[in-house]
Amino acid sequence: MKTSEQIRVGTRSLWNRTKGWPVCVSFEVTHSCCADCHHCDKGGIKSEAKLMTPADYRRYSEELKPGVCQLSGGEPLLREDLVDIVKAVKRPNGLPLVVLVSNWWLMTEEKYLALNKAGASLFSISLDFPDERHDDFREIPGLYAHMNEIIPYLIKKYGRGNIVMNSALTHENFDTIPGLVENAARWGTQISFSAYSALRTGDLSLCINKPEDLKTLRKHIDWLKEHKKTSSVVLNSDWILEQTYRFFAEGGMGGCQAGKRFVVVRPDGLFNGCSMFPDLQYKSRAEALKEFKPTRDSCKECYVAIRASTERGLFRLVADNLHIAGSTPGMATED
């Protein structure tokens, strides 16, 4: 992300917080997906009778005025009109910062260039393992090999610095943290980490909660903080890394600002206060803000990236933006 764009995003985010508007809007452009990930509830192709059009996305962007929006799913690359959607969410002032969250199975050089030209500022790619175990976890044979080919190729050829990795930490992959960082470095990119929540699937076996596992996680968090002193590969600030550990160690974390700092727009145009509660659907952001509040206030069961980034206090927001020096960790995914 360019410095000028970072300044506009930061200024807009502060203004939105002052006005009570969402800092980030997560547009789930489809609930269909070509993967069937172990930690996600969006696997497989869905029957979606009603999908918003690019004109709908333009209207939502103008009404909600976010500084950042993420386009996710499901798998957003399944939308044939995705380029038009990216164009539609961009407003005349160049905002929002558009983050495309994808597994990249369907990504090609042509699609990358078209989306970049349309206004996609950041491509956030899910990476669960630094090898073919990634295929098994997402149930797409050949996915890692495809990523291993196209990601370093595009980075080397175009060098735009807008391709980053994200990894949701689960009991299956948390011990591969150093390997994931090394993988990102080898591809010439960066990586951020977030926390798995059982709210999506109900699968408690993927939670990191055993004393011996927390001890290992503590070691890896400390390793990440040390690694950041000599490398820019890890995007998370020290504070967010510590909060991620705290979430697992304490078995949850209250204080969520879902519906307030960020909001989810479903493929059909209805709102969720949070993607973890897809059945709680609202007709407007105002309704979501009001009706979802009791659920939000009683919930402590996630610390996803979009929450980590948008609920920071003013001092922390400024400090973390100085740290990232041109990138946007945490906004990239709810994976």
Secondary-structure blueprint:
Elements (H helix, E strand, L loop, with lengths): L2 H17 L4 E5 L25 H11 L3 E5 L9 H8 L7 E6 L6 H10 L1 E7 L6 H6 L4 H16 L4 E7 L7 H11 L2 E6 L15 H17 L10 H13 L11 E4 L5 E2 L8 E2 L2 H7 L1 H6 L6 H6 L3 H11 L11
Parallel strand pairs: 1-2, 1-7, 2-3, 3-4, 4-5, 5-6
Antiparallel strand pairs: 7-8, 8-9
Helix pairs in contact: 2-3, 3-4, 8-9
What does this structure look like?
With 335 residues, the chain is α/β, with parallel strands linked by helices. The protein has a single domain, classed as Alpha-Beta Barrel (TIM Barrel), CATH 3.20.20.70. 41% of the residues lie in helices and 13% in strands. It contains 13 helices and nine strands. It has a nine-stranded mixed beta sheet with strand order 6-5-4-3-2-1-7-8-9. Helix 2 links the parallel strand 1 and strand 2. Helix 2 packs parallel to helix 3 and helix 8 packs antiparallel against helix 9. The longest helix is centred in the first third of the chain and has 17 residues. The radius of gyration is 18 Å and the shape is globular. The protein starts with a helix and ends in an 11-residue tail after the last helix. The C terminus is likely disordered.
